[in-house]
Design goal:
The protein has one domain. It starts with a helix and ends with a helix. It has helices spanning 5-24, 32-56, 74-102. With 103 residues, it is mostly helical.
């Protein structure tokens, strides 16, 4: 299946907007909404970059940092990953709804 770069770009822009909103309305230093928006933004960027590469043979000039989390235990890491996936899915649904409304 070929990715649609335009749809991926729309999702990336919506993720940027959601991240900005989360950051600018942060309720505390460890507001989980900011972390969730970060994860959605990172995912949207990767999808967009991959779509550009697949369709046009081009990529963006940006690289996401790899996270070094050697302190955690593997079971905790798996649980955290599952929770992050759930949060990303929920925010993706919210972003899709926002995109539909804006069209």
């Amino acid at each position: 299946m070929t990715a649609d770069p335009r749809a991926a770009l729309d999702r990336l822009v919506a993720a940027l907007e959601a991240h900005f909103t989360a950051v600018s309305t942060r309720r505390s230093d460890d507001d989980p909404r900011v972390d969730d928006a970060y994860d959605v933004l990172a995912d949207a960027f990767e999808v967009y970059d991959d779509a550009l590469a697949q369709v046009y043979g081009e990529v963006t000039p940006f690289v996401l940092e790899e996270e070094d989390d050697d302190e955690g235990d593997d079971a905790d890491d798996a649980e955290d990953a599952d929770e992050a996936d759930d949060d990303v899915d929920e925010l993706d649904e919210d972003l899709a709804t926002e995109l539909d409304r804006s069209r």
